[in-house]
Design brief:
The chain is of the alpha/beta class. The chain has a single domain (about 35-315), classed as Rossmann fold (3-Layer(aba) Sandwich). About 50% of the residues lie in helices and about 10% in strands. The protein has twelve helices and nine strands. The longest helix has 19 residues, at about 95-115. The chain is globular, with a radius of gyration of 20 Å. The structure holds zinc ion (2 copies).
Amino acid sequence: MSNATCTKCGRPAFYFRAYTGERLCIKHFLESIEENVRRNIGKNKLFTWNDKIMVAASGGKDSSVLLYILHKIEQEFPHTELFALTIDEGVQGYTEQRAEIVRKVIKMAERDAGGRIEHYTASFKERYGYTLQEIVERSMKMGKGVSPCTYCGVLRRRLINVMAKELGATKVATGHNLDDEAQTILLNLGRGDIHRLARVGPKPIRELPGFVPRVKPLRYVPEEEIAVFSYLKGFPFMRSECRYIGTSMRGHLRVSLNRIDRLHPGFKYRIVQTFDQIQPILAEKSAHDVKVRPCKKCGEPTTGEICRACQLLEELGID
Ligand SMILES: [Zn+2]
Ligand SMILES: [Zn+2]
């Protein structure tokens, strides 16, 4: 391997992409990730010519790589705009670190591609009255048996949607990568949740009132390659995105999928690719009209009377 050469230019290779058989030098590795994102944006029509894009930037590798690449691409389109939002969940020790990392990545993106990226923050504390840590502790004390990831996921998603509307975004770009998508597909298969499975994809099947559409530009980039990209660019990053992940079903799938993928390169990639081919059929089959209306408590869109976020908070006596 050490004396192998880049498939594209013949210079010494530094990365072997097992699932395609390509060997790549640093330059061509970096370019290939950007191309991967461009291909996804083009093929799946993730953006329109005048989108105002909000990148949910957490300080983790995925969203930093997303922010960096998307800013570069966005610079080529005169009528689009892009800005970053960082959610501060208020988990001890993360608060300052998170915003600081995102600020550094923004500086690097601006340095390399020009332009400016506005950076906004929103916190659980100011929006919900409690930090995630306080909410989880309260839930445990009350013996609710709700996983921390549920609070984090539901409350983050709502705050992201609220902020996107407040800041006038027309699209929200998230850092979901190939591994996340393969896990989500198998998770929903394993749970027998066809409706949710039908909604897995690079962008929403159809736009629903009150929701700013969420798109996933990194959907075909493996987690490992994002890590390598981030390392090569010298991005600072948070040590751990979530300290609860190890105990969840997603955590178990992640370990198993990585093991299989090492033995059979491309396994994760093919799960997502195959899913993409059957997704239109699934979507049609589960095309019962989803009726969305404003939540009676907070006004955010929901299929029931009260949205999931308000339900969770209500159960804890937080209003
Ligand atoms: Zn090369
Ligand atoms: Zn609500």
